Amino acid sequence: MIAAIKRQIGTEILINTENNPRIEGKKHVKVIALRWVKSLNINLPLIDLIEKVPKYSKYLKEIRSSVIVSKPITPKLKDPRSFTKPIEIGDIHFSKALCDLGANINLMPLLIYEKLRCLLQPKEVLEDALAKVRSFIILIDFVILDIEEGCAIHILLGRPFLATSKSTIDLEKLTLSINGNT
Questions:
Q1: Where are the domains of the chain?
Q2: What is the pLDDT of residue 112?
Q3: What superkingdom does the record give (predicted)?
């Protein structure tokens, strides 16, 4: 276009160009818009974001798997199987009553049952015996077995007793809490 004007006029045109203020204004607007976008917080539900942006989903999976790998593995603890706890039945105190998490019944030797007979009615299954653990009195059923009394542990307390007494068992510390008292 300048060449066409030169031909018509026949002289050279001095071109003194200045920066177009509209272009400078556009650059200024871009800078302001960029600052605004950086300060913008968009709250989208995570599920919507994962569905709409597959790359983000892949990124989250990579992060999750790297976190799983970097966590230390919890050491495997030994299975305690069973433990003992002091208990009173009637006037008889047992320093070691075996608590077994695998037992479905509570067991008592016949000789101990005979000692308690004056307090309780004889049956094949002793029902509703009052067992005292610390200050708690709990009704408990026992299956009576004719076994030797020479054992160090005379009573077996199974899951029915542990459930009735609302026992909490910490297998790592090997503690038994009955109704919140250790």
A1: 37-71, 82-178
A2: 78
A3: Eukaryota
